[in-house]
Specification:
heterodimer, A: mainly alpha, two-stranded antiparallel sheet, B: about 280 residues, alpha/beta, 6-stranded mixed sheet, 9 helices, 12 strands, globular
Chain lengths: ~325, ~280
């Protein structure tokens, strides 16, 4: 019982309950086959691609900042590797480094602009989002003459970044799980994690207490942009081609996943478990509907309702956590 | 002023502060010694906040000197001031409401255990030290370091912030209106903690506009009016009424009261209408 109470005070409580509620709804009302739903790759692939970006974006949100430029960084990562290793025939290693390097540079710019000015990071990354969309389209059209750039990858790169496990599950699922474990350790076990919470709680007090706030914020922006490039890069390796669009829908999906996962939009509260389960929940709501007897036209209504309910539960559990004090014995 | 034998820890000499053409502080001269509580009294807008910000390194004085242990010092940032042992605790105490007691206590100086990249935050140790520090100030009701700071009462949060400052070696404690938002019991609690800090040999600067609270703990009082020290006296030299009158800028409370009573007597017991 005590364990359950403790879980309910955690930032992931609402995400876990939402996940259970959504699956129950699809199985009971939608008459979905639980085994079939569980074995399906569609929602898990969707979740993994979202989740890799949701992890750093979630940490950034806990630190009190937001990044939406990843919407353009996904195609940017794909185009970069395809241009370098496809159009110009350079080794795939160069393409991979180029793609991640571009992420690091854009993340650095986002971080510097955010920490040097008082402009909210939402607006700054809205700017870099649009700039990078322009750069991506211009780069693809002027250098390759086409938005779909072909890319042939050697077997090892295909194996690491772009093959299907059991012909259905993308290998990025493995990356997502490994990254979730690493991010969980980083946020909840190391002192840097404590700095992230302090940053989101009160930036000035954190700085006065000796937290290197500027470096920390920049590092988080770099992680977020690099994660987006990584997702784009994996896509290009798997599908042997690129698209300049796509990625925009990720902005809404990633932020929704993070918030469903119990991260406070204004910072200072959240957990990696929550972000992980929030992403799973969002993916199942989104993709699971096709396994049910529910008319697909209802999809957005169900997604929206789930989001609102999850937010309300988050609010409720956060209050509970604040009011908590152990009973006197 | 009856002189004390010990020399002051923190001293301001003829400190002025202007923002552009506006002079906010004029010729402020103040001293505070170890084991002494200096109460800074003043109405809203008297310049108390600006003075705190100068002592805690947020603002640099336009002219004048700050001395610590008799040596001239310069605080360019709040970090400078806190490294020299000046800790400022603001009205709402803990500033990380959604962090646990143990975690917020050690922000920036987290205890770790383990090795290399697997160095982990030592939650047990952090909670243990934080709770001990808090309990040594008489807050025995709290024994779980995992509780969130936002769930504590106002007085408990103040106490936590003071205990934290003392634990990390503060010598001068600046308390910015610590009792302003608190109820009677909670305020009494904070006042006890101020006394405890004083007993431990800290120099305390207690900013308030509640004369009763100041008189309960103060050894030395300075009244600020329109950016200048209007009066500087020691415990027992002035009565509560005299201090209140001083803060109101000369217009005595008794005068105000008789005016109101006079009005009510001629207006069927209605108080005078208020003009913003």
């Amino acid at each position: 019982m005590e364990l359950i109470r403790k879980l309910l005070r955690g930032p992931a409580a609402a995400a876990v309950l939402s996940l259970i509620a959504v699956v129950a709804f699809y199985v009971i009302v939608g008459r979905a086959n639980l085994l079939e739903l569980g074995a399906a790759a569609s929602w898990l692939n969707f979740a993994a691609n979202l989740g890799i970006i949701a992890l750093p974006v979630g940490l950034l949100m806990i630190a009190g900042e937001i990044d939406i430029s990843f919407g353009a960084m996904i195609p940017a990562g794909a185009i970069t590797i395809a241009l370098l290793s496809g159009t110009y025939g350079l080794p795939i290693e160069v393409g991979i480094l180029g793609s991640l390097g571009l992420g690091a540079i854009v993340g650095l710019i986002n971080g510097l602009l955010t920490t040097r000015t008082k402009v909210p990071s939402l607006l700054i990354t809205l700017g870099t989002l649009t700039i990078m969309q322009g750069v991506v389209l211009w780069g693809a059209m002027s250098l390759a003459g086409n938005a779909s750039i072909p890319l042939k990858s050697p077997d090892w790169a295909k194996f690491l970044f772009g093959h299907l496990i059991g012909n259905s599950h993308q290998v990025v699922i493995v990356w997502w799980v490994v990254m979730a474990l690493a991010f969980g350790f980083f946020l909840h076990k190391t002192r840097y994690g404590n700095w992230i919470f302090a940053l989101g709680g009160d930036r000035n007090s954190a700085r006065n207490a000796g937290v290197p706030t500027t470096k920390m914020t920049i590092a988080l922006f770099i992680m977020s942009a690099m994660a987006a490039c990584f997702v784009g890069m994996c896509g290009a390796i798997q599908f042997n081609t690129t698209q300049v669009s796509g990625g925009m829908s990720y902005i809404f999906n990633v932020i929704a996943s993070v918030v469903v996962g119990g991260v406070l939009l204004t910072g200072g509260f959240g957990s990696v478990t929550g972000i992980f389960i929030g992403t799973l929940t969002f993916a199942i709501v989104n993709k699971g509907i096709s396994f049910t007897a529910i008319n697909p036209n209802w999809a957005n209504l169900i997604i929206g309702t789930t989001l609102v309910l999850a937010m309300l539960m988050n609010e409720y559990f956060r209050k509970k956590a604040l009011a908590y004090s152990p009973k006197k014995v | 002023m009856t002189g004390s034998s010990t020399s002051p820890i923190l001293e301001l000499r003829n400190v002025n502060k202007s923002f552009g053409p506006i002079d906010v502080l004029h010729d402020i001269t103040l001293q505070v010694r170890a084991g002494e509580v200096l109460c800074l009294l003043g109405d809203n807008g008297a310049g108390k906040s600006t003075l705190i910000k100068i002592m805690s390194g947020v603002y640099i004085p336009t002219s004048g000197e700050i001395l610590m242990d008799g040596q001239a010092v310069r605080f360019d940032t709040p970090r400078d001031a806190s490294e020299k042992g000046i800790a400022t605790v603001h009205q709402f105490g803990g500033t990380f409401p959604l962090m646990s007691i143990g975690r917020s206590f050690f922000v920036g100086v987290e205890p770790t255990k383990g090795w290399g990249p697997f160095k982990v935050f030592d939650r047990k140790k952090a909670n243990h030290i934080a709770i001990n520090a808090l309990q040594s100030f008489g807050i025995t009701r709290i024994d779980d370091g995992d509780r969130l700071v936002g769930g504590l009462s106002g007085g408990e949060r103040q106490s936590l912030a003071i205990a934290r400052a003392v634990h990390f070696g503060a010598r001068v404690l600046i308390l910015d209106e610590p009792t302003a938002a608190l109820g009677v019991k909670q305020a009494a609690h904070v006042l006890r903690i101020v006394n405890e800090a004083k007993r431990r040999g800290l120099a305390v600067i207690f900013i308030t506009h509640q004369v009763m609270h100041a008189m309960a703990v103060g050894d030395h009082f300075a009244v600020l009016i329109r950016g200048a020290v209007a009066a500087d006296f020691r415990r027992g030299e002035k009565s509560r009424e005299q201090i209140t009158d001083l803060m109101a800028g000369g217009e005595t409370m008794a005068d105000l009261e008789s005016q109101i009573e006079g009005y009510m007597a001629t207006h069927d017991g209605h108080p005078p209408p208020t003009h913003t």
